[in-house]
């Protein structure tokens, strides 16, 4: 088997002596949909922060595509194609929905001020491409109607979808979705899940997601990684994990 | 005749409003577009003014060379301050900037050998020598006055300052519409979201600080030219808060709100300086001075109360979370 796209090894992160992540190791293979589950306080979100560079690990290593990323700033990690979303959607409220998505476009020369003068044509050309793609993505998450509205007018669930569209706009290799279904209406959940799967199938995007909706997790994931008390206690196919006594113990608190 | 009826007086008010426009425009770039709470903006105006005056008097440079160097010096000072402090959280950054501006003012007050000390630029040259950094500028203004066929230097200056202020505003207005401006606004909204999408928030904030400081430097150079003499007291923290008032009165996050805010502010401050008509003549001049400040305060409170978004701001943006 080829080396994993994301390799997390013995990562530790403590807050005031409490080890939120305590020697966690996991692999995410290219082209897979991997779910990270575990009870509240298991360290899932902290692990996301560590992988995406929003926090530094105290020890351990994180490699993406064979290169260490555990000392890189968050924006550099994102530029390499490892893009995260947040548990609470981070809409840029005083910008339009369309602008929110446009912002995420990679390789826009106009993001350097002087190039708007020196490379005016290239900037405009890229802006047209990016605009077309942004409209496609908004169509995908059913936000086209709101494209010109301020993102602050969107509901919580819509912001979640906007976050998702924004992450896709970056053309990521690996996307970390932090509870993508939370706050999204049940009607849209199925569709969002389809989007996640087609994103993998059509664009080869690898997905690592934290999710509490076990139906979603078991139905769509290739692999499931279970965390408890800061460590990974089990990993395998949904079927394997479901039958693991340690998982039932940690997750339900009681073995049945 | 009342001073208020004199064109000369209003030309002067206009010049000051123009200088304030350039100063406050820098703050708009920093706060309105990048979300930086800079409470020490006046420091960069001081650095611009002093660098220009010192280079002309002490190094014998032409004012035309000294001015761009002074503006660059203000920008570099902004970058240096930013590199060391921009990683601080917004409120801590605000505290550091106000301390920085006081440091600049105290250095200017106490380093007599460099800045002329508390006596100001008159003391820049050796005893007995004239410390005039403004000869070339004066000559230029006279020439401009002739070309424009206007009655006074102040009117010539008015045209010049506003030409500069409005072009700078237009440039900022254009810049904020580019993808670059989009990133800047995203950082103002949510720095983490911008970082998660691959934007180097720190780098952009540094650029905003450099541009904002350079604009303050331009304001400082114009200030020095206009008044032909200045001292550290001219760059008290109050001036920073004048710039804040202009940005807030005009509208946060709107480039054209800055000249509008500066005009309103300028008229409010200078236009109330001479209350030599009824009912104000019922009071003696000391009482009138306080009455003036009370009135200015009331007008500002009223504006903020009834137009919290500023004159050109969008009210709906205030309620978005």
Written account of the structure:
The complex is a heterodimer of chains A (256) and B (321). With 256 residues, chain A is of the alpha/beta class. In chain A, 38% of the residues lie in helices and 23% in strands. Chain A is built from 10 helices and 10 strands. In chain A, the strands form 2 sheets. Chain A has a 6-stranded mixed sheet with strand order 6-7-8-3-9-10, sandwiched between helices. A 4-stranded antiparallel sheet of chain A has the order 2-1-4-5, with helices on one face. In chain A, helix 3 (97-103) packs parallel to helix 6 (156-169) and helix 5 crosses helix 6 (156-169). Chain B is globular, with a radius of gyration of 20 Å. Chain B has one domain: ABC transporter involved in vitamin B12 uptake, BtuC (Orthogonal Bundle), CATH 1.10.3470. Chain B is built from 14 helices and no strands. The model of chain B has no long low-confidence stretch (mean pLDDT 90). Chain B has 321 residues and is mainly α. In chain B, helix 3 (63-85) packs antiparallel against helix 10, helix 6 crosses helix 7 (153-176) and helix 11 (237-250) crosses helix 12 (257-270). Chain B has helices at 7-33, 42-57, 63-85, 90-110, 112-115, 135-148, 153-176, 179-189, 191-196, 201-227, 237-250, 257-270, 285-306, 315-318. The interface between A and B is medium-sized, with 37 and 28 residues.
CATH topology of chain B: ABC transporter involved in vitamin B12 uptake, BtuC
Identify low-pLDDT runs of chain B: none
Helix-residue proportion of chain A:
25-40%
Helix content of chain B: over 70%
Question: Which protein chains make the most extensive interface, counting residues with beta carbons within 8 Å of the other chain's beta carbons?
Answer: A-B, 37 and 28 residues
Through-space gap between termini of chain A: 36 Å
Q: H/E element string of chain A?
A: EEEHEEHEHHHHEHEHEEHH
Based on CA atoms alone, the radius of gyration of chain B comes out at 20 Å
Please mark out the parts of chain A with pLDDT under 50 across 5 or more consecutive residues, or reply none.
Answer: none
CATH fold category name of the largest domain in chain A: Rossmann fold
Structural class of chain B: mainly alpha
Strand percent estimate of chain B = under 5%
Largest sheet descriptor of chain B: none
Oligomer: heterodimer
């Amino acid at each position: 088997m080829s080396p994993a796209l994301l390799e997390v090894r013995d990562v530790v992160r403590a807050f005031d002596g409490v080890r939120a992540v305590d020697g966690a190791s996991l692999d995410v293979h290219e082209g897979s949909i991997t779910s990270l589950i575990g009870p509240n306080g298991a360290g899932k979100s902290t692990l996301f922060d560590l992988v995406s560079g929003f926090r530094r690990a105290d020890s351990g290593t994180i490699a993406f595509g064979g290169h260490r990323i555990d000392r890189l700033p968050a924006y550099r990690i994102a530029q390499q194609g490892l893009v995260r979303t947040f548990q609470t959607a981070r809409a840029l409220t005083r910008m339009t929905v369309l602008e929110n998505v446009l912002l995420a476009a990679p390789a826009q020369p106009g993001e350097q001020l002087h190039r708007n003068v020196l490379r005016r044509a290239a900037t405009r050309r890229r802006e047209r491409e990016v605009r077309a793609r942004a409209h496609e993505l908004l169509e995908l998450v059913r936000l086209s109607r709101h494209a010109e509205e301020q993102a602050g007018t969107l509901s919580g669930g819509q912001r979640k979808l906007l976050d998702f569209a924004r992450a896709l706009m970056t053309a990521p290799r690996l996307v970390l979705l932090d509870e993508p279904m939370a706050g999204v209406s049940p009607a849209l959940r199925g569709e969002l899940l389809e989007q996640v799967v087609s994103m993998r199938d059509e664009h080869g995007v690898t997905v690592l997601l934290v999710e509490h909706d076990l139906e979603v997790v078991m139905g769509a994931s290739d692999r499931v990684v279970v965390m408890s008390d800061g460590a990974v206690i089990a990993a395998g196919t949904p079927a394997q994990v479901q039958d693991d006594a340690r998982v039932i113990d940690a997750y339900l608190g009681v073995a049945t | 005749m009342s001073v208020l009826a004199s064109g000369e007086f209003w030309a002067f008010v206009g010049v000051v409003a123009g200088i304030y426009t350039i100063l406050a425009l820098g703050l708009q770039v920093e706060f309105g577009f990048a979300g930086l709470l800079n409470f020490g903006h006046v420091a960069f105006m001081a650095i611009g003014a002093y660098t220009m005056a010192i280079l002309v008097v002490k190094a014998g440079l032409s004012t035309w060379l000294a001015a761009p160097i002074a503006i660059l010096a203000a920008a570099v000072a902004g970058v240096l301050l930013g590199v060391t402090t921009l990683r601080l959280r917004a409120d801590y950054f605000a505290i550091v900037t106000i301390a920085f501006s006081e440091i600049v003012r105290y250095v200017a007050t106490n380093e007599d050998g460099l800045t002329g000390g508390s006596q100001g630029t008159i003391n820049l040259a050796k005893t007995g020598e004239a410390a005039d950094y403004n000869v070339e500028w004066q000559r230029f203004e006279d020439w401009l006055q002739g070309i424009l066929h206007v009655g006074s230097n102040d009117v010539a200056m008015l045209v010049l300052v506003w030409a500069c202020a409005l072009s700078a505003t237009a440039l900022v207005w254009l810049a904020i519409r580019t993808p670059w401006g989009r990133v800047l606004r995203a950082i103002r909204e949510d720095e983490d979201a911008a970082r998660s999408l691959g934007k180097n928030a720190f780098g952009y904030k540094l650029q905003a600080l450099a541009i904002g400081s350079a604009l303050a430097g331009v304001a400082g150079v114009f200030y020095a030219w206009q008044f032909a003499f200045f001292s550290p007291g001219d760059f008290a923290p109050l001036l920073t808060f004048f710039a804040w008032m202009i940005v807030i009165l005009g509208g946060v996050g709107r480039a054209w709100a800055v000249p509008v805010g500066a005009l309103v502010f300028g008229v409010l401050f200078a236009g109330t300086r001479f209350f030599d008509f009824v009912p104000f003549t019922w009071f003696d001049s000391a009482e009138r001075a306080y009455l003036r400040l009370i009135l200015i305060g009331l007008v500002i409170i009223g504006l903020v109360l009834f137009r919290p978004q500023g004159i050109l701001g969008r009210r709906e943006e205030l309620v978005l979370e």
